[in-house]
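Example record for the data management plan.
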Amino acid sequence: MWPLLREKLLDVFKAVTPLVGIVICLQLTIVRAPLDAFVQFLTGSALAAAGMLLLFIGIDLGILPMGRFIGAELPKKGSFILIIAVAFLLGFATTIAEPDVLVLSGQVDSVSQGAISGHIVLYTIAFGVAVFTAIAMGRIVTGWPIRWLLAALYAIAIALCIIAPAQFVPLAFDAGSVTTGVLSAPIIIAVAIGLSSVLAGRSAASDGFGLLGIASVGPVIILLLAGALL
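Corresponding structural encoding:
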């Protein structure tokens, strides 16, 4: 436990220190924000660092091992539909809890002054990730080449950019980028590695990765499609 704690503490320190250092330099030279705002930033940074430390330890201790176990057990049930259903549910559940997605949906609601509901954006993104996570898991089982699937999906996304309203395009691609966060990414990758590790003739290295590329294009396509149809 202690070696893991030291390792994650160092990771958090490396992640937080550059941001805090830059803000301190700006505060001393250019910005000069009120003292209470600066102290509030330092306090928030400390709380964020503590939260990141607990999150990283929790992921390594429980989420990753359980994800690999689930992925390894699913093929033993002999049901392709079960694999797809579990992939859909995991993709949806992890996305609605993803901090980056929650921040984006909240910002959309705030900037649009409620014209675009943050809850609708949140659940639309989650649905897109869930559908395409299921497709990605199905690809592992069927052995379909990932390069052709990625090429087809991103070609669809590019085509939708042409016909969707201009204001939906940046939102759609930001929605795709925030889905690969600290919660959804390790869970999806762990399940995929566990799944590919027990399938005959498959490599966990080649089949266990690439899911995030497929899953993250899901919200892009769903939001662009919604914009084109509205």
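Summary line stored alongside the record: The chain has ten helices and no strands.
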